[in-house]
Amino acid sequence: MTEVITLAHGSGGKMTHDLIDSIFFKYFSNDILMQGNDSALLDLPGGKAAFTTDSFVISPVFFRGGNIGKLAVCGTVNDLASSGAIPMYLSCGFIIEEGLPVGDLEKIVRSMGETAMECGVKIVTGDTKVVQKGAADKVFINTSGIGFIPEGVCLSGAYAKPGDSIIVTGTIGEHGCSILLEREMLEINSEISSDCASLNKMVERVLGVTKDIHVLRDPTRGGLATTLNEIAKQSGVGIRLYDEKVPVREDVRGICELLGLDPMYMANEGKMIIILPQSSVEPVMNVLKREKQGANACVIGEVIAEPAGRVLMKTVTGGNRIVDMLVGDQLPRIC
Amino acid sequence: MTEVITLAHGSGGKMTHDLIDSIFFKYFSNDILMQGNDSALLDLPGGKAAFTTDSFVISPVFFRGGNIGKLAVCGTVNDLASSGAIPMYLSCGFIIEEGLPVGDLEKIVRSMGETAMECGVKIVTGDTKVVQKGAADKVFINTSGIGFIPEGVCLSGAYAKPGDSIIVTGTIGEHGCSILLEREMLEINSEISSDCASLNKMVERVLGVTKDIHVLRDPTRGGLATTLNEIAKQSGVGIRLYDEKVPVREDVRGICELLGLDPMYMANEGKMIIILPQSSVEPVMNVLKREKQGANACVIGEVIAEPAGRVLMKTVTGGNRIVDMLVGDQLPRIC
C-alpha cells in the first residue's frame, strides 16, 4: 500500500477494495459488515431490514440528467433496492463550502425532495455543516437509508451460482461518459446524459413476478467490469460475458474509443445487474421490457464454476480475455 | 437570508435553524422529520427505533481528548441516546483528501473501532470517497445510526413542562475551548481537553432507575445556550437558569474571559441536558454522581410557563437576562 491516500483509493476499484480490507475490515470487523454487500442486512425484531450509506462528491454538481441531490437519493435508494429492500427512510448530511449560492442549494434540495417523493421514501433526519472557502468543493452530500426486506427475498453478491444467467437492465456507461464530457468541456456534439434514476419500483415489480433471483447490484463506480468482479469473488464463481451482447449506445462507444476509455469501467447510476437461474430469465425480462429503465435489458453472460473469482469476456471471434477490476482511477469524483 | 451560504449557516445556531426552516423543511416535509429532534423516531413493525445522521468536519483532525473518528462515533451514539434509544448499528462514510497519510486514516479508523466497541455498537456499512488535493480538508466523516427505544421510554425536545428541573451532566465548554486552543496554537498553558465521550451507557442506567424523564439532548454546536433555546421553542415553554449553578471549570472560564467568549455557547461533546419532573431529580442525580461522565452533574435551572420560547438567566444579584441562540458563528468546524 502507498503511504498516502490517492484518488485511486476512491475509484471503487482494486485500491478501494485493498483499503477496505486492510483498514476498515481490520478495525470494524463484525458479522454484518463482513457480508460485503452494498447494504448491511439487519435482523430486526419485526423482520429483515437493509441499512446503507453513500457520500456524494460528484463534480460538477449540476449535470445533464441530474444533479448531486437527485444522485444522492437515487444512489442510496438503489443500494437498498439491490438487497431487495423496499426503501423507507433516508437521512441526509450536507457539507457545504462557504460561498455556495443559496439558490444552488435550494435547487439541489428541491430535487432531492422530488426524487424522494417519486421513490416513495421519506427524508427523516439530517445534518448541515459549513466549511471555509477552499476546505471543500461546493457541496458534498451523504445519504444513508433504511429499507425493509419482504418475506422470501434473499439476495446477496455471494449467491451467484454456476448456470445462472446475467442480465444488465440497460445500456452502460452513460453516467460516466456524460460527466466526463461536462467536466472536460469537450466540444463534442452529443446527446449523452446521465442515466441517474431510481430503480426501486422496477425492482419491486421484478420481485413481484419471481423471488428466484440470486444477486442484484448496481454497477456504479468502477462500472460493470468492477461490479461483476466483486460478485465473482464474493460468490467464488467465474463469470463469462458475451462481448457483442453488452449493450452500449453508439455515441458512448464512440466517445470512449476517442478517449481511450472502456465503457465496461464507466459508472452507471440507473442500471442494475440481475443474476438469476435460467428459469427466471423469461418472466424477469418480460417485466423489464415494460419498464422505462429496463427497456434495453439484455442477457449479457452466464455464471460458470471456473476460473473462480474471475470475469472472462468471450469475444465474437471466440477468444476469451480476462476482464479485471478497475485499477487506478478512470475518472475521479464520478458520484 | 443572505444570498450565499456563510459559516454561520453551519454554526448550529440561529442561521442554521433559518436554513433548515426555509429550505430543508420546505422540500423534505414529512411527519417524522418535522418532529425536529436530533434523532428521527420510526415506528417499525418490531417496536420504536431512532435514526440519526451527523457529518464531522472538525479541524484539527487530532486534538487533545480525541480525534475526528472517536468524535464521529460518540456524536452519533449520543444523538441516539438523546432519544432514549439503545444504539445498535452505525454506518460510516469517509470523504478523504488525496494525500492524507494512510497512517492518519488508520489511527482514525482504529479509534472508531475501539469507541464503537466501548459503546456496544456495530459499524455495519460504509463508503469511501477520495477527492483531489484542495477539494476537501484532510478527512470528513459521516456517521448515521440506528437504535431501539425500550418500552416506556418517551423523550422529545417537545416534552419539557413548567415545573420540570434541568440538569446538565457536567462542566460545560471544554470541547470548544480545547479545539480553539489547539487550532489557534495559543500559547496558553492549560490542561483543558475535549470532553468527547459516549454517553449511551450512562443514559441507559439513568433510564433504568426512572423513565419519568421528559427531554434528553446533548449541547454540542451552539453550546448549552443554543440547545436550551431549541428545547424552549420546541416545547413552547420558558427556561430559567441559575447563573451560579452552571458548572464551568475555572480554566475554561478564564480562557473564555480572555478571548471574549461565553462558555454557554461553547460546544460540548460529552454532556447531556436532562429535563425531568422534580420527583425524578434525586434518583437521577444519584445515578449520575456514580458515573465518570456524570460526577459533576448539577441542577442548573427550571422550566417555566412564560416567556414561552425564551431562556432567561437569573443572575446572583437577582436580575434576569435573556440568553439567546448563538448568532453568527463563534467557532467554525468544531465538530
Structural summary, described in words:
The structure is a homodimer of 335-residue chains. With 335 residues, chain A is an alpha+beta fold. Chain A has two domains: 31-148, PurM-like, N-terminal domain (60s Ribosomal Protein L30, Chain: A), CATH 3.30.1330.10; 165-322, PurM-like C-terminal domain (Phosphoribosyl-aminoimidazole Synthetase, Chain A, domain 2), CATH 3.90.650. Chain A is 31% helix and 24% strand. The first copy, chain A, has eight helices and 14 strands. A seven-stranded mixed β-sheet of chain A has the order 9-11-8-12-10-13-14. Chain A has a five-stranded mixed β-sheet with strand order 1-2-7-5-6, covered by helices on one side. In chain A, strand 13 (311-314) and strand 14 (320-322) form a beta hairpin. The longest helix of chain A has 18 residues, at 102-119. Chain A is globular, with a radius of gyration of 19 Å. At the A-B interface, helix 1, strand 1, strand 2, strand 5 and helix 3 of A face helix 1, strand 1, strand 2, strand 5 and helix 3 of B.
Kindly list the characteristics that best describe this protein:
homodimer; 335 residues; alpha+beta; 60s Ribosomal Protein L30, Chain: A; Phosphoribosyl-aminoimidazole Synthetase, Chain A, domain 2; 8 helices; 14 strands; 31% helix
Short description:
Two copies of one chain form a homodimer. Chain A is α+β, with helices and mostly antiparallel strands.
